Amino acid sequence: MKTLKKFLRGLAVVLVILIVAVYFFRAPVTSALWGLFVSPPLIAQEDVALGKNETWLDDYHTIEKIDETTYALNEPRFFQDNLSYLIIGEDRALLFDTGNPGRDITGFMRGLTDKPITVMPSHLHYDHTGSLSDFDGIVVADTDNLKDQAEDNLLTPTHYQYMGIAAKLYDLPTWKVDTWVKPGDKIELGGRTLIVVATPGHTPESVSLYDPSTNILFAGDYLHQGEVYAFMPNSRLQEYLDTTESLLKDLPKDVRIYAGHGVPHRPDALGATYQDMSDLKDALIKMRDGDIEGTGILPRVYGVNDKIIILTDIPGPDSPVWDFRAVDKD
Ligand SMILES: [Zn+2]
User: Is residue 38 within 8 Å of 166, Cβ to Cβ?
Assistant: First the structure.
């Protein structure tokens, strides 16, 4: 009896130590767990529901024609339903994000336009930068001091920028940056101008592109239907709130938001609306003020509206993700 008591007491101590350790080292722990589950099996092709302007390119990619000069390249069998955008002007085209590594998309893109194609990532996560080096002319936004991080314009993401342990499934790439742009800069495609907008929150270096000619915001991972990821060690809820308030101020109410992920089985690339941004702002303020209850532990999940949920870190004074005073607003 005594031995059993001793054993149980020892077990309880070990458990408490383990829980405390996981809490304080949750960034690498989340990252490791994420790495384990990052590649669930592909969804069966016959289970994918296509949008009305969407067709298969091969047994993995689809293309959705948004208009005559705007296309979404989709990976609808991948659990995160990745989306990259080909934006075509009169002189050149820009491919915003390049999907998962290991898949050659150059042929599909060159089949859609005879204009030279430059590529630009919305942020540096592996699932948005997979084919960057397959194209000539890489444009990167100099946010979060990325230009200082590059040597001779050769940019290697850190593990967290490439998405933690998930990045270990692949070798860390090095990209040769041809052009650096800054928030507020205009990218001229010929008869079509894209404005670079800093949209940190998901990651510090995240950017979006606003196209006034079509009133589209190409938003990367800032906001989309389904699960918005704000649980990574370099996610920041205060930045999410600042980004959202500034977009609500600057963008027209009928803006169309095309994002870096869709929802499998829910076709059409259109990701979110002005109302969704407004709902996100309300949810973030309620999260900050403790007026909304989350569910789950890691990630902690909060509802934004009936289409969108936000996944984040455990609330607490030591959580950089939750530190609403941590962001330098200058
Ligand atoms: Zn991302």
Answer: yes
